[in-house]
UniProtKB/TrEMBL annotation:
GO terms for molecular function: damaged DNA binding; DNA-directed DNA polymerase activity; metal ion binding. Residues 169-355 form the UmuC domain. This is DNA polymerase kappa. It catalyses: DNA(n) + a 2'-deoxyribonucleoside 5'-triphosphate = DNA(n+1) + diphosphate. The keyword Metal-binding applies. InterPro entries: DNA/RNA_pol_sf, DNA_pol_Y-fam_lit_finger_sf, DNA_pol_Y-fam_little_finger, DNA_polymerase-Y, DNApol_IV, PolY_HhH_motif, Rev_trsase/Diguanyl_cyclase, UmuC. It is an enzyme of class 2 (transferase). It comes from the Eukaryota. Its EC number is 2.7.7.7. It comes from Umbelopsis vinacea.
Length: 527
DNA sequence: TACATACAC
DNA sequence: CATGGTGTATGTA
């Protein structure tokens, strides 16, 4: 896992590749087919009864699994299944027949572990947050909110000024990237459920990085512990990671991107944004034709397939990628009507930046699809922060950034490790030295130093704590990292830990500082 | 600034 | 038996 690819500086340690959204979100966005479609009824909002089984199961099932409303959805299940098979008859991973069973198995296997208990705690915290929001709502629900409607509608007008429909943005995502690369070398793996793994973690197989589409049919996904995957699919074939191979394949893919947008922005080894507006001026081809050409070239170069989304901005392009994966693409025309039609029926979970928790919160406020945001706008304006609210409004309007740029300014750098539970002073300080050394090495290779030092610890109970201190000057040496991190650790003792990490932020280049660690400020004159 | 959370990959 | 690592943003005190 040691990559020194400077090009990948900020990506080099990404282990888990893209989430398996196919398996997940099929059913959860389907309530829009139900009678709940249409304007969310503001009076239907009721206090959340914390259904531990339901929310916890979803939480345990992993980051990419969205809510399954067992009560409401059970009824819809056959219908949804029919629809999915009708619209996506051959897509692997869409086979969600056993989704409830998968979550059940994960739940049963996890039950009682420290991890589980911690998840339960986090889940309860979210329920508490939701109830607080709902009681806030109770107090305002009878207000007319006419002022708020006016404010929000003005806001919408302002946001409309941000809208730029003149760019053609493409989001490209390699299909089951690591698994597909492995299948090139070992074609027999294509027909068996297979995963790549990493993280020896504390024992056993470790955490899974990616799975092929055969494995996804069993509910096996990235970021799942190996032993649970084996429970779901005992015949699972587990393959070790070969990062150099993935980087090699990625370089070939990127050389194709380069031809269409020299400023393309890679998000990981297997994913990137391109702005093909300029390229389109050099050809008679339409945007989707160009993207077919790009995917074609990728295939010829690597024998790997990619999926793509084409739209007016990055958010929409990313959402479009999801529509026809794997090995497909979707073009959303840059017309207001088309954009609205595309966005409205989508589950809010499809909005990049809306995860499990936000989905739960919004669902509690009767916002299930992007369309629901609009009728609820005055209420949401009252209940959410300005930033969160504007974020939702932009999503609803289909407004997003069109800036595709590979420039990157790092804001922090860190090293963290998980290990078998440690509690003796000696062991803990030895670990800390080890981590400080790794961080010092990274700082060295990137020529960085910084003055805010953070310590992260995860107790054996999975409780996470972070402690930070801003120092008078910049540091980068192992001894300094170790010294200040030790001071922070000291105050936490005694503890039994399963993880330790050190982070350095408020960074600057070592070239910019003098011997005292004081940042040398460029003399700015007005002459 | 310090800390906890949420999210992406 | 057993649940990762790196980085960003945001809310809150």
């Amino acid at each position: 896992m040691d990559h020194h690819d400077e090009d990948d500086a900020h990506l080099s340690s990404q282990i888990v590749e893209e989430e398996d959204l196919l398996f997940d979100d099929g059913p959860s966005e389907q309530p829009s087919l139900d009678e709940t479609t249409g304007n969310a009824d503001i009076d239907k909002i009721t206090a959340q009864h914390s259904d531990i089984d339901e929310t916890l199961r979803v939480r345990l099932a992993g980051p990419s699994t969205s809510k399954v409303n067992y009560h409401a959805l059970q009824r819809l299940f056959t219908f949804i299944e029919f629809l999915i098979n009708y619209y996506f008859p051959i897509q692997a991973g869409m086979d969600s027949v056993d989704k409830a069973k998968v979550n059940e198995i994960i739940y049963e296997v996890s039950k009682g572990s420290s991890f589980f208990e911690n998840e339960r705690k986090k889940d309860n915290a979210v329920t508490g947050r939701i109830n607080a929001l709902l009681s806030k709502y109770e107090r305002i629900k009878n207000d007319v909110l006419s002022e708020e409607f006016i404010i929000v509608d003005n806001m919408i007008e302002e946001l409309e000024d941000e809208r730029d429909l003149n760019q053609c943005i493409v989001h490209i995502d390699m299909d089951a990237f690591y698994a597909s690369v492995e299948e090139l070398d070992q074609p027999h793996l294509k027909t068996v459920p297979m995963v790549s793994f990493a993280f020896q973690a504390v024992g056993g197989i470790g955490m899974l990085c990616t799975s092929n589409y055969e494995a996804r049919k069993f509910g096996v996904r990235s970021a799942m512990p190996g032993y649970i995957a084996l429970k779901l699919c005992p015949q699972l074939k587990i393959v070790p990671l070969n990062f150099s191979k993935y980087r090699e394949a990625s370089a070939k893919v990127r050389s194709v991107f380069e031809q269409y947008d020299p400023h393309y922005c890679p998000m990981s080894l297997d994913e990137a944004y391109l702005n093909i507006t300029e390229h389109l001026k050099t050809t008679n081809k339409s945007p989707p034709e160009v993207v077919v050409e790009i995917r074609d070239k990728i295939f010829k170069e690597t024998l790997l397939t990619a999926s793509a989304g084409i739209a007016a901005n990055k958010m929409l392009a990313k959402m479009c990628t999801d529509v026809n994966k794997p090995n497909g693409q979707f073009y959303l025309k840059s017309e207001l009507a088309d954009i609205q039609e595309f966005i409205n029926p989508l589950s809010i979970r499809k909005i990049p930046g809306v995860g499990r928790v936000t989905e739960r919160v919004l669902n509690a406020l009767n916002v299930n699809t992007c369309k629901d945001i609009y009728p609820q706008r005055a209420m949401l304006y009252k209940l959410l922060s300005d930033i969160s609210f504007k974020f939702l409004l932009r999503a609803h309007l289909g407004i997003g950034s069109t800036s595709v740029d590979s420039e990157y300014v790092r804001k922090s750098i860190s090293v963290e490790r998980t290990f078998r539970s440690l509690s003796s002073r000696t062991d803990l300080y030895f670990k800390l030295k080890d981590i400080a050394q790794k961080l010092a090495k990274d700082l060295e290779s990137k020529n960085l130093c910084g003055k805010t030092l953070g310590l992260k610890i995860k107790l054996t109970s999975f409780e996470v704590r972070t402690r930070a201190k801003t120092l008078p000057g910049n540091i980068y040496k192992q001894e300094d990292l170790e010294k200040y991190a030790s001071q922070l650790l000291e105050k936490e003792l005694p503890v039994s830990l399963r993880l330790m990490g050190i982070r350095l932020s408020s960074l600057c280049s070592r070239d910019e500082i003098d011997q005292k660690g004081v940042k040398r400020v460029g003399i700015c004159t007005i002459f």
